[in-house]
Amino acid sequence: MGNxxxxxxxxxxxxxxxxxxxxxxxxxxxxxxxxxxxxxxxxQEAGSFLDQTDxxxxxxxxxxxxxxxxxxxxxxxxxxxxxHITYDDGNGELSGELRILxxxxxxxxxxxxxxxITSFTRILIVLHFTRQALNTQSAPPNQVLIAISLFLTxxxxxxxxxxxxxxxxxxxDAGEIEFDEAFEKAMDPMREFMFSQAMVRDIDVFMQLAxxxxxxxxxxxxxxxxxxxxxxxxxxxxxxIIGFIIYVPFIVLDMVVxxxxxxxxxxxLPPTTISMPFKILLFVLADGWNLVIVNLVRTFF
Length: 301
Description:
Blueprint: H1 2-37, H2 40-54, H3 71-77, H4 96-116, H5 120-134, H6 142-173, H7 179-197, H8 200-209, H9 224-263, H10 271-285, H11 288-298
């Protein structure tokens, strides 16, 4: 037991000695680094830098706090706290930072604009009605319907997007037009599309609510704030009308199946359970997806 205690004490002493040597080595190394970093030449450069920063010409704080008397003096009080929006060589182009900010803002607004001022709403509602009429619950799933609606929207809106790019975006990137003019030229093709799809009665109602005079024909007299809600209401109305037309043959099939089941005395069996396979068969034989999608796209042309 005595030998074991001595060995244990010796191990503790060796560990303490090793820790002390490591600490001494670390202190010596730190002193060496500090000594090398504070040589005479570095000290002179540091002193000259401090002298320069203390000079009145190179300070960021030009005047003392509270010494500003006018708005101009307040602007010059501390130039480091000012926000400047610069232009590229004075040619009217925005700086890179501001362009990034505008692009991020546009990315956040793109989903809302895609749903409201394009053909996306009508297409998605009609496809949803088609799925409900087939009574297939989740086939096709929502992701597939949204993807189909997006691709069809890009197909329908491609001439509008191309015109917006050639007349507004490309000249603005080249510095030929300013931002305000580019925005107006970009909105013109979109306004023409919405005006061609919106109904006159919807536009007239919102023009009356806004108390803006309108002759019932001129597009230039209709502001964009009136045209967008009128276009959305027209899209919803058209989509529900098309959905009703799609529902009619499937309702007739449900009625026939229900009548057959009642005549056979099978009143406890749900008619939709029997009619769903016949709906799918009828839809496939009639090439239903081609009829629905092609005729839906033709409503925009």
